[in-house]
Here is the input.
Amino acid sequence: MFNRIHHIAIVCSNYQLSKKFYVDTLGLTVVAEVFREDRKSWKLDLAVNDVYQIELFSFENPPERPSRPEARGLRHLAFEVNDVDAVANSLNEKGIVTEPIRIDEFTGKQFTFFADPDGLPLEIYQS
Here is the structure.
């Protein structure tokens, strides 16, 4: 019935800060950016490895959503990477704190977590 996940939508509290984080810091590619006047909302379409996957939205005064500890709802967004150590070091050099690297007990793959400017948990996971 389903082919794949088409995209993930993220609502941020500070559009310029989040845009800078996802584009400049994480290196995602801008596919399209529009301001929707009727909603006073930015919509930024982003690609991961040349595949459109993330929509970043701004809205006036969005309510906070709990994300930790283990709050109900979407748990985190995970990015597949070739080298968790290298990506974690790169993030740390940019001032983004990553958790200690762990090993998935079922797959034996490395992974770690960090957060976006709104505290959304993001994961990097070994391919």
About this structure: The domain at 1-61 is CATH 3.10.180.10 (2,3-Dihydroxybiphenyl 1,2-Dioxygenase; domain 1). Helices lie at 15-25, 84-93. The beta strands are 8-12, 29-36, 41-48, 51-58, 77-81, 102-103, 110-115, 121-126.
